[in-house]
Structures are given as structure tokens and as C-alpha cells.
Amino acid sequence: MKNYYDYAASTPVSQHVLDAMKPWETENFSNASSAHQAGRASSQAIQRARELIADKIGALPSEIIFTSGASEANNLALKGIAFKHLDGKGHIITSKIEHKCILNTCAFLESIGFDITYLSPEQDGQISPSSLEAAIRNNTILISIHHVNNELGTIQPIQEFGAIAFEHNILFHTDAAQSFCKCDIDVDDMDIDMLSLSGHKIYGPKGIGALYVRDARDSELVPLIHGGGQEAGLRGGTSPTSLIVGLAAAVEFYPTQAYPIEKQFLEVMPQFNFTRNGGNAVVPTTWSVTFHNDEEVKRFTSDCPWLISQGSACNALSNVASHVLLALGMTEEEARRTYRISLPPYRINES
């Protein structure tokens, strides 16, 4: 789409990915759990996908658990740990600017007796390591803080978060849906115990994602979906071979060099009066901009008929101002003058 600048919400499926998926939809369509030759072929394709994804984050293939996307992966990480502690409950630390699937999961866990601390961001959108350390209690069972904010593009200091969690012997989970393939990730160096990722943010298909779980086969995560023992017993259901292959192809063909910011965008934006949110540590392709007045908003939307969002896609159908922007201290009026412009990580016809 010529005027589409909402790539943080979703990307198109690349031709590499479509080509990789097609045989597993029409020819090699067997169930990967079947014992016959065709089933083994599907199983081998899934194993290769695990290897590609694991290598991208410095994990083991056995630690990659396929899900329907990052939302399910986030639910599995938080509820899977919480359900292990149902008797004694416990304390979980997250932030006020997480994706809605994290916040709504935490709200559910609060409703059944868990204590949740929601850390406030600094004005630049970063969560400070000192605020995290100060929030830790004797009964803290999990820390979950995202890697890159989906509205601001702010990169969080997750290596410092991981070190704090490791020092206190607390599990650390990060939602990496907006950073996977775009930022360097090493789960050992960053002391990450669980990490969520999604296919449709990196030119892969919708409906597929994964949860990295350290030592998954020995994990005490409680499954949300019980089935026939798939995914190390942590996520039941017939493996969607074509989607898994598609996710792996998106990873395999993701460029290793940064794509330059769109020239048209850089030429147009200086014509408007706005403030860019998110501080200095941001991914270059996500711009959260607050226009200085309503006239600038009207001029921008008239001159630039781009397909963009106010806040994130999960907030787009609501009349409520973005929870992320309000957490930064913006007024509702300022939040309503704020737009997220998310540029392509790379152009698929140039890769």
C-alpha cells in the first residue's frame, strides 16, 4: 500500500515467506505428529524452524514453543507462572506501558488474588532499573517488561532488568514483538528466562508466534492449552506447519543490515511543528509525534493522507486516550494530538 505507515501494527507477507509456506499447504500437508514418512517430513521442517529462530536469540531449539502469536505467548508466560503459584499467590512486576495483552492478563491475575506492581515510565518512556529493584519483594515470582514499546519505539534496558532479576533469583520475561529481528537479542547475555515474539511484525504470516522458555523441557509452566503433548507439553494442538515454516522464512530472509529511513518521510516531516516522544533510545522506524496544536494536526492529516494510528492498533477502535501516553504525563488533549507513524523495517521488493 502506497500510503501505509502502520508497520508496527502489521507487515505484509513477503514473497520469500509465501513461497516457503505454499508446499506445506498444498502438497506436504500431513500432521507433524503422524508417524509415517510425510508426518516426519513436517516434523523435520518444524525442527528446522526451531533451529533458525533459536539461533536468532542465542537459545536452544528445544526452548522455542510455538504459539498463535505474541499475545498467546505473553499469556502463557504470565499465567503459566502464576498458575504454578495458585495456592500461595505472589507478586508480579510489570510496567504501566505494556501492550494491552500484558495489562489485561495482569488485571485478570489481580482479580484472582495476585499482587501486581505497575512501574511508571520516565518522561522519555524508559523504565528505570532503580524503580524495578525498589519494587522487588520477598514473594516476587515474575518480572515482565517489554523490550521495545509498541507506541513510542523506546528501547528498554532489558539487559539491566535481566541482571536484577537474576541477582534476586526471579524469572524475567520480555515481550519482544517489536524488537525481534530488529534489535540484537541474546537470551543468555541478557538473563532472559522467557521471551515472546510474533510473525506478522517481520513480514511473516499472522497467527503464528513463539515463546522462548529457558530449559523448556524441565519448565514448570502450567499449559493454557492441553492437547496431545505438542510443544514439549506446554502448548497442545496440531502444529500449523505452514505458518511455522513461514515464520522461520521471515527470520531467515530478514536483512542483516539496517534499511534507510524513507526519504519521503524525512523530507515531509520537518514541514510540521511537532515533538517526537520516546527519548533518544528508540528504534528508527517508530515515530510517536505530538503536534503542537489542532491546526498542525489538520494540516498534517490533509497534506499526508498516510494510513497511520493514534497510539497502537489495539487502542485504535477505542475513544479512550492511549494508556502509554497518559503514563508519560500527557493530558488527554495532548494524547489526542499524538500519532504513531511506523515505517517499514525494510522494503520486501528490495530484499
Structure description:
The chain has 351 residues and is α/β, with parallel strands linked by helices. The protein folds into two domains: 238 residues, Type I PLP-dependent aspartate aminotransferase-like (Major domain) (Aspartate Aminotransferase, domain 2); 80 residues, Alpha-Beta Complex (Aspartate Aminotransferase, domain 1), CATH 3.90.1150. The chain is built from eleven helices and ten strands. The chain has a seven-stranded mixed beta sheet, with helices on both faces. A three-stranded antiparallel beta sheet has the order 8-9-10. Strand 2, helix 4 and strand 3 form a beta-alpha-beta unit. Helix 1 packs antiparallel against helix 7, helix 2 packs parallel to helix 7 and helix 3 runs parallel beside helix 4. The protein is globular and about 65 Å long. It starts with 14 loop residues before the first helix and ends in a 9-residue tail after the last strand. The model has no long low-confidence stretch (mean pLDDT 95).
